[in-house]
Amino acid sequence: MRKLLIVFIALSLNSCSLDNKTGIWKDASEISVDNRILKSIPQNSTATRYENISTQNKIFNEEIDPVKSSNFKIDEAIKIINWPEQYALPNNNVSNFSYSGNRILLSKSSRLNNFSSSKNNLSKKIIFYKNNLIFHDNKGTIFIYSLELNKKIFKYNFYKKNFKNIDKKIDLIVNGDILYAADNLGYLYALNLKNKSIKWAKNYGIPFRSNLKLVNNQIFLANQDNVIYSINSDTGKKNWQFATSLTFLKSDFRNNFALDLINNNLFFLNTSGELYSINYQTQNINWVLNFKNASLAGDTELFLSHPLALKGNNLIVSTEKSLLSYNILTAERNWILPSEPIFKPVITSNYTYTILKNGLIISVENISGKVFWSKNIFTYIINNDIRKFGNIIDLKIVNGEINIYSSNGYLLALNHKSGKFISITKFSKSGIASEVFYLNNNIVLINSKSRLLRFN
Fold first, then answer.
1. Is the pLDDT of residue 81 over 80?
2. Could you give the angle at the alpha carbon of 288 between the alpha carbons of 49 and 169, nearest 5°?
3. Using the 8-state DSSP alphabet, how is residue 450 labeled?
4. Is the Cβ–Cβ distance between 77 and 56 less than 8 Å?
5. Cα(309)–Cα(313) distance, rounded to whole angstroms?
6. Structure confidence at residue 39 as a pLDDT band (50, 70, 90)
7. CB atoms within 10 A of CB 414
8. DSSP string of 114-132?
9. How confident is the model at residue 373 (pLDDT cuts 50, 70, 90)?
10. In the predicted structure, residue 293 carries a pLDDT above the cut 90
């Protein structure tokens, strides 16, 4: 009898794949597709308004010197402790970062495994929580790297067997020691960072293609068919879903969410060029705008945009040809500026800053939409050597200064009131391959050699 018991235990253990870092493993392929539709937002009487964003005016391309203004106040600089989601905050906007260091290198990591800034945009998917960097590689392994210990302290792979040869594209968000991950295979799972085990996992069948938002135990995300999901963060069960217009034209632009926590509104810009405002408590659609040309029949026009940015009642939409401002409550357009933004803008209380394809950085008045000042960035580059400077990869406002970062590791600082030159320095010898993060009075970035650099 005793021998039979030993054999039974051995067979039981052998039937489970055991990972000494994460506990008993359940392969992702064993999770069935969740096809249940518990609730769907009804198509109410809200009419879609078509927005004409192809103006007759020429693309903005001139340098403008500022006039004196008593209204030029910069928002108070804020100290970011955690960066729990892409774009740091629910509204996708930080007006002014606080930083009191001297850009002195504190630590440099060894090469981060299989981290590539050029493949799958992994550099855009990293987050920080409790002084730890959280990122993933193309195989779907999630890594946690301690900034304090300067080493990896945990890794976890949700995929085995059937999916090992498929490149993974994963979006992450963390809240209360629970890391939520959504991927291009249709999986959404919750990983407990304390006990390092899966809390729940679901397969929704269609690849997810959006950033993640979380509020009031609701995770918001969208799939590649532009279907919005509200998922219970405790259980992984579907609260409701809503299908928006599908496009068959594929581009690098991904579905994008922004949250207005004051009015309980979720903003969703999809790959079809539709912008939705939805009350996430009542599930009522407030309004819908469509940036596609209404006169074109069928799905014949590619829509390209940058992520939404929100501050107060001002929502900025930056398409490939226009910068637009809307009132979030009424959907009334405040203004439109024909231009070619290359980044998500930074919005302050009175002005919006962005960089254009033609090399201009502009400051736009939030009320009127008038360009207050504009400067050609490349006039500040030493000997006008653009190749030495590299590509512009990031824009931040730090302690009231405009900071522009290049792929070759340069930092160009400008005055936010006038755009006047302050300084240009090279503080990363091996370049910059990620967003530049200001965290807990440190600067953190990934260089072109896939090493994590931390400055004080």
1. yes
2. 130
3. S
4. no
5. 11
6. low
7. 24
8. T--SSSTTGGGS-EEETTE
9. very high
10. no
